[in-house]
UniProtKB/TrEMBL annotation:
Protein name as catalogued: Retinol dehydrogenase 12-like isoform X5
InterPro entries: NAD(P)-bd_dom_sf, SDR_fam
Pfam families per the UniProt record, alphabetical: adh_short
Highest taxon of source: Eukaryota
Keywords: Oxidoreductase
SUPFAM superfamilies, per database record: NAD(P)-binding Rossmann-fold domains (SSF51735)
GO MF term set: oxidoreductase activity
Transcription regulation as UniProt keyword: no
Length: 243
């Protein structure tokens, strides 16, 4: 908002997205008054349900129609420790919402991102949990032995592997000026922990609340993402993982 950017919030819940937009506008309004000579930024909401690949395609088609340029794509939404469930597309929830949907959205928007370069960036928000992950190609849905922890770690590892492979493919295609990153934002106070009681034991969520004072705020957790999105030094790198 303060840099005159046009920011698109692709969200599942339009009501919550609207609340977020209002909060951002309220937070940045005083700064905007101090810099009244600058052109104000824009906040736009777009419907996106990552548990539906049809919704992903519809969102991408809408953005391709309405946005002549896409300079930064941040794949950030996700689920954590979700009880076993398949999406309408037949994939386990973690692997689709955290990885496959972002993978599809990125590939659908990639031609426009390339056209908008050089200097464009793609950021995949992963997690340090990838260290405990393996890609179970023979059982991607983990139906033989499901564990929400295993499912989450697998999806976060997939984010990083996708980032590295996308960077390799861009280099191989001699496409310059597109930088891709993956990162761990830290332990942040968000709604990601809402399934802990069902995944572990009743009361686990209450235990997590006890350590919330030691967690990062949403603003603090966003710093690594912002570094990858706008920092000049990050613009000299690509395909790397940041913490």
């Amino acid at each position: 908002m303060e840099t005159s950017a046009r920011v698109i919030l692709a969200c599942r819940d339009i009501n919550k997205a609207t609340e977020a937009v209002n909060d951002i506008k309220e937070t940045t309004s005083s700064a905007g008054e101090k810099n009244s000579e600058d052109k104000p930024g824009q906040l736009v909401i777009c419907q996106l349900d990552l548990s539906s690949l049809t919704s992903v395609k519809n969102c991408a088609q809408h953005l391709l129609k309405t946005e002549p340029a896409i300079h930064i794509l941040i794949n950030n939404a996700g689920v954590f420790l979700h009880p076993f469930e398949k999406t309408e597309n037949g994939f386990e929830t973690h692997i689709q919402v955290n990885h496959l949907a972002h993978f599809l959205l990125t590939l659908l928007l990639l031609p426009r991102i390339i056209e908008s370069g050089p200097g464009c960036r793609i950021i995949n928000v992963s997690s340090a949990a990838h260290l405990g992950g393996n890609i179970h190609f023979e059982d991607l849905n983990l139906e033989r032995s499901y564990s929400p922890v295993r499912a989450y770690c697998q999806s976060k590892l997939a984010n990083i592997l996708f980032t590295k492979e996308l960077n390799k493919q861009l280099i191989a295609a001699e496409i310059q000026g597109i930088h891709v990153y993956s990162l761990h934002p830290g332990v942040v106070k968000t709604e990601l922990c809402r399934y802990m009681d069902a995944s572990f034991f009743r009361g686990m969520t209450s235990i997590v609340r006890l350590i919330q004072p030691f967690m990062k705020t949403a603003e603090q957790g966003a710093q690594t993402t912002l570094y990858c999105a706008v920092d000049e030094n990050a613009g000299k790198e690509s395909g790397l993982y940041y913490e």
